[in-house]
Amino acid sequence: MTDVLTPLHILHFHVMEKLTKYLADVCAFRYNLALPMTEKQIRKMSETVDHQTIHDLLVEIARKAGDMVAGAQPHVNTSGYKKNSADLVTETDRAVEKYVIGKLKEVYPDYDFLGEETYVPGKKLTDRPTFICDPIDGTTNFIHAFPNVCISLALCVYRTPVVGVIYNPYTTHMYTAIKNQGSFLTMPVRTDSPNTPAPIAPRKIRLPRKSYPEPLTGLQNALVAVEWGSDRTGPNFQIKHRTFTRLVGAVEDGGKMVHSLRSMGSAALNLCHVASGQLDMYWECGAWAWNVAAGWLIVSEAGGIMVDGNPGGWTPAVDCRRYLAVRAAPDGQKELVEEFWGCVEGEMTYNV
C-alpha cells in the first residue's frame, strides 16, 4: 500500500511547523534562550549589524528605562537580595530589564541577550551578536537614593563590545561609544550668560574630557577606584583587603600612598570616569559582563586600556570577571598597570 499525502496531512504538517516555530520564539523571548546557529549563520548575521542604528536604539531605550528608574521610589525595607544583604535587587531592576528585552526583541529577535536579572547560571557569552544589559548598575545606591546609578547597555559581536551606552537618569549624563568611532558624553550644559539667561541644553563632548591628558606617573600620583563587592569573606575578599591596604598605606610602611581610593557603587560609571580622565584607574574583581561590557568599549574608545585584574593578563575576556581599567595617557599606562599588579598578592578566581 502506497502512502498518500492528503490535504489533511499537509495541513497537519503546516500547523505543526508553525506551532514549533511559535514555541521556539516564545521560549527565546521569555527565557532568553537563543537557538543554536552555525558559524556561517553567525558570520552572516554579524556582517549585517548596523552599529549606528543599534547605538541610536540603545540610547532611546536607555532614556526611557532611565525614566522608569528616576520615577521609582525604592526603600531599604522593601528591597530583596540574592546571595546576601549586600547583593540587593528591586522590582524596578526586573521591570527595567523586562522592558529592555521587549524593545530589543521587537527589532532583533534573533540576537542573543545576557542580562543580570534573567541570567541563568552557566549561560555563556558566545560569538553571536548579543545584547548585554545591567538594568540598574548601582542598585544599593538606588535604594539609598544616592544618585550614582545607571543603566548599562551593550552589543557584543564575537564576544567583543561594539556598541556601548551608559545613562545616569539622575544627572542625565549619557556615555556612548561605537567601535572605531570614539567615546562621547552628552550632558546638560547651561548656555546662558549673566545678562541673557537661557535654558540648559545638551552638549556632546568627546572623551577624554581633557584634549591633552597628562602622563601617568605612578600610583603615588593616582586617583584609584575600587569596589568592595557583595562577597565579604573567603580568599578573594582577603586579597582585595590586602591590596586596598597596600594602595593607601604610607610609603615607609611598604604602601603606595595613592592620592585616594574612590568606591562609588557602580562599575559602569566608574569605567565612564576612567574614560573621562577623572579617575586614573579602576580595579574591579567579581563583577559580571553586564557591569562592564558597555564601559569597556567606552574606556577603549577614549584611549584607555582594559587588562586583567589578576597580574599578567594583558588581553582579558569581557566576561572574565576581573578587570583593571586605566585612563588615556601619552605614556605611563603599561608602567602603572605593572606597578598596580605588584600590589596584588595572590590570584583571584571566579565562576564564569
From TrEMBL:
Presence of keyword Zinc: no
Residues reported to bind Mg(2+): 116, 134, 136-137
Keyword Hydrolase: yes
Organism: Pyronema omphalodes (strain CBS 100304)
Protein name: Inositol-1-monophosphatase
CDD domains: IMPase (cd01639)
Essential cofactor(s): Mg(2+)
EC number: 3.1.3.25
Keywords on record: Hydrolase, Magnesium, Metal-binding
Reaction(s) catalysed by this chain's protein: a myo-inositol phosphate + H2O = myo-inositol + phosphate
Family of the protein in this entry: Belongs to the inositol monophosphatase superfamily.
Pathway info: Polyol metabolism; myo-inositol biosynthesis; myo-inositol from D-glucose 6-phosphate: step 2/2
